[in-house]
Amino acid sequence: MKNKETINVQGTEIRILSVTTGKNYLCITDIARIKNPKEPKDVVKNWMRNRSTLEFLGLWEKINNPNFRWVDFDPFMKEAGNNSFTMSPEKWVENTGAIGIFAKRGMNGGTFAQQDIAFEFASWISSEFKLYLLLEFQRLKEQEQKALGWSAKRELAKINYHIHTSAIKQNLIPTQLTPQQTSIIYATEADVLNVALFGITAKQWRDANPGKQGNMRDYASISELICLSNMENLNAVFINEGLSQKERLIKLNQIAIQQMQILMGVENRNLLN
Fold first, then answer.
1. How far, rounded to the nearest angstrom, does the alpha carbon of residue 230 sit from its chain's CA centroid?
2. Which of 8, 22, 198, 232 qualifies as a cystine partner to 160, CB 3.0-4.6 A?
3. Is 206 in the same domain as 248?
4. Does 109 fall in a domain?
């Protein structure tokens, strides 16, 4: 398993596991507590003994699982509907090699189902609950995508920072300088970008925000990080061209103003669409 999250749907906490393949598994045991808070596993078993449920599970496995054992699936379909027929997540997986559902043991255990199967189960529990579950799940995934986009832009800024510092090392730092002196020059060059984009140095930001961890770039918007990434590349070019720090600061500030106006315009249009 890759990570675990929780969403709250109408007062019910539902766990979500994301596996390495990018698939999301929701805890249907948590969903089942709506019907039977004390014995939710019995609700899951009752759902799994339905013929329509087995047909759905078999179809899902056919689409997603090339190793699904159809020979062992057929007897279940013949028995489904009989009063004596029983089914559990463990029995289903053990006999058919299914991957859409699995049981997790232990204190925080339960039955987890791939999101399509979990939504089908939620529909069986309550159509209204399924709708709210879908809305909350979509909200969570939208938040994750936004966070992923911000993280990607932050990483891009870090990569460009290496290009930037390489240009500084080759053109502005004499070989005779000590590492301590070199770091001072790096900090000065970083502040060229900070002042050009944010209007203040790193120290000025820290003094104004004593309670915040990290630096001003950690609190930047995606638009600011995109602009910063572009400016780092351009500053490396300006350094290689031999422009003075003052000349570069003026040019970078003009570029920052122009690019932020464009980026904010694009962002506003996206919000209106």
1. 25
2. 232
3. yes
4. yes
Give domain status of residue 138, yes or no.
no
Q: What is the pLDDT of residues 211-264, one digit of tens each?
A: 888 888 888 877 788 888 888 888 888 888 888 888 888 888 888 888 887 766
The first and second tokens of residue 219, run together, are 């609190």
Residue 189 and residue 109 share a domain: no
Which residues, at least 6 apart from 134, have a Cβ–Cβ distance to it below 8 Å?
119
**Cα dihedral 93, 95, 97, 100 sign:** negative
Do the domain assignments include residue 32? yes
The total number of residues shown for the chain amounts to 273
Q: Residue 137 domain-assigned? A: no
Nearby residues of 73 by Cβ (< 8 Å), 6 or more positions away: 54, 58, 61, 96
Q: Which two tokens stand for residue 248?
A: 């570069």
Task: Tell me, yes or no, if the pTM score tops 0.70.
Answer: no
